[in-house]
Amino acid sequence: MARPARPVRLAPPAWLTAGFKPAPTPVPWAAVGRAAVALSAPLAVGLAAGQPAYGALVSMGALSGVIGDTADAYRMRILNIAVPQLFGAVGVTLGTLVFGHGWAAVAVLTLVALVSGMISSIGAVASVSGLLLLLNAVVGAGLPMPDPWWKAPLLLGVGGLFVLVLTLLGWPLRRAAPERSAVAATYRSVAELYEATGTLGYDEKRQAVTASLNQSYDLVLARRARQHGRAPSLVRLLAQLNAVIPLVEAAPAAHLRARLHGTLSATIPAAVRDLADAVEEGRTGAPVLELPTPERPAEKAVDHALRYAAAVVDKAEPDAYNVDDRLGRPAALRVRVRRAARAALFSEASWRYGLRLALCIGLAQALVSLIPVPRSYWVALTVTFVMKPDFGSVFSRAVLRAFGTAAGLLLAALVLAEVPRGWWDVPVMCVLAALIPAFSAKGYAFQTAAITPVILLLSDTLNQQGFDLVMPRLYDSLIGCGIALIAGYLLWPESWHSRIGDRLADAVADTATYVSGAFGGTEDQGGRLRARRKLYRDLSTVRSEFQRALTEPPPTGTRATAWWPLVVAVERIVDATTAARIRVDHGAAGPDPAEVTAVARELRELAQGIRASDTLVEVRSALPGDENGVLAPLRREVSAARAIAGPDLR
């Protein structure tokens, strides 16, 4: 008797729905409060002064500041808010000057889009600056601004300055708090890593440690680069951050030991958490550590690293320790500016993205110039947000933008239909503005849904169209998403031939170099440490690129899904190499040089195969060696990676 056929479940593919799952992040209550005040207070002042349009423009400037306030350290927040505001002022000035000039506006906005796209590839601050340059140019060219021409950029700048002032209110009391909290958070992530040793959750916790280390070094070194002389508090903080590295390096060996001989003592993660509390509180004094007696090399490595970290954290004077800035201290400002300008002008990727963005903006502006579209600036605004290079996949953003805009318009329709204009705008804006930082942390679609009603309410204050704004904005958003999908995605071959394989191949080749250097007979421990930090940072970037590719439609998304296990395999190879090196440093017998050479050769062949093919080719490789030797786990990880992919030599 034949079994009845199972019902077919119609469900959208995972790459399409991934962006609709809210990220499990806490609500940034301080940012929520700042946004509520920054966007509602200017409206209240404008209404009280009888100039609601001026208040709306100040609130628009504040909105840009709220979106750009994404850093933790106060000095970085100044840059993230102030520098983009200058570019935004230039943008709105250019837009205002070509308002109502038809094809001249098309030409100017297309040129601004080219410049915006090129500078967006430089870095985080430049990316936000490029966004505001184009965003405000589009708004200035699409909305009537008050005369004379300088009034609009001035009012927008006042809004950004207001956000900056609100942001810096806590600076006198919390001058170094963000950096200190970041270092303490790194220690806590290491404690969680040790709790996860020997379990399936170890890989996830290791990725969290890598992300936390990257953030901490970025914050601490960026602040120290701007500090004249040697500030004792920063020297101590950097010494405490450096002291956590031996604990991170010992973790892979501890993980291997836990898999073979059972879980570690609970006193180890508890001691690391106590160090985290000491860092955050600035506590000093004689450390009290009650740790089990170490017996195996991995246990000795953990014990040694933990006692060293305790000595550094609890010592008031860190100068006795080697504070190594070479892990990422920025170059001088003039050098970085020169490098950034060279990268923007002579980089193929910079020109390629700039031309894509210029093409899309040019098409959007030409379309609304040929076809009468009321308040047509929303089409180009949609293109600007969707084509933002560091927000994720263009395809995914277009889909999420469409759904997010629809959700935001539903809320805006309720507000515009039921709430009378005037003083009621102030409490409504207070609530809507508070949703922006709360929803932005959850994902792009949620951020779009929060920003849309705010922009519509401010636009209505400027042009007094009321409920009639809602449906045209939906049509404009769909048109903008369509332009971005066709002209910014489908027409470009790189959209269909992602370079994720090249980036992964580079990481595998660097891993081969790391393996050779770890057992090459040199005693440059600092060099090995820096190589490992750089390798893990690069692997973190590769993982982010793959996660972005997973949201692309086939074939890119399909390929990324198939190759994802290889990304994990390479991370495990780096862990196994570090674990072997730590075991050798604490008493285990060193490996045969021929064995090291064979492992490195296999990794280089793997890198060659990744570059040579878009498809996975399984390779069965024999890596002889001592099954009880220190490199046995590493050989197994390399063999597992080669079983996933390699060069087709048949």
The percent range for helix content is over 70%
Topology as H/E string?
Answer: HHHHHHHHHHHHHHHHHHHHHHHHH
The shape is: globular
Report the strand count. Answer: 0
Give the DSSP E fraction (strand runs of 2 or more residues). Answer: under 5%
Q: Would you summarize the structure shown here?
A:
By secondary structure, this protein is mainly alpha-helical.
What does this structure look like?
It is built from 25 helices and no strands. The chain is an all-alpha fold and 650 residues long. The radius of gyration is 27 Å and the shape is globular. It starts with 13 loop residues before the first helix and ends in a 6-residue tail after the last helix.
Could you outline the blueprint of secondary structure elements for this entry?
Elements: H1 14-17, H2 29-48, H3 52-68, H4 74-97, H5 103-120, H6 124-142, H7 151-167, H8 177-195, H9 202-225, H10 232-243, H11 245-261, H12 267-281, H13 297-313, H14 333-346, H15 348-370, H16 377-386, H17 394-418, H18 425-440, H19 444-463, H20 470-490, H21 500-518, H22 525-549, H23 556-585, H24 593-612, H25 632-644
